[in-house]
Predict the 3D structure of the following.
Amino acid sequence: MAQPTKDMLREIFRLQEQLNRRIGVKMKGMSRAEKVKWLLNYSRAMSQELAELNDSVPWKWWARYQKFDEQNARVEVVDLFHFLISIAQVLGMSAEDVYTAYTKKNQVNRQRQASGYREKDHEDSRHI
């Protein structure tokens, strides 16, 4: 089952790279300053999309007019993926790199939970 997921992730990365090129963002050959600029641009955009996701959920306990907009919440999650993948690409990460790092970090998180995660170990993620 892992193989189709990797293929789908690879396709998402390909599509995002095309979209970024179309809007004038060339990931390959970015200077350090350009990387910083685009990491900030994309992380700020993600913050906005996260705020829009929050607005899809009735979080104002004092306001009775709010409704849960599940469809919009789904769209906002996808928007977050667009920017997150762009961040990965700015950092030179491929779909395979993200998959590998995710599985390694997932294992670290599992170990943390199994051990009670009582102290922060700054070394447990260095291998990722």
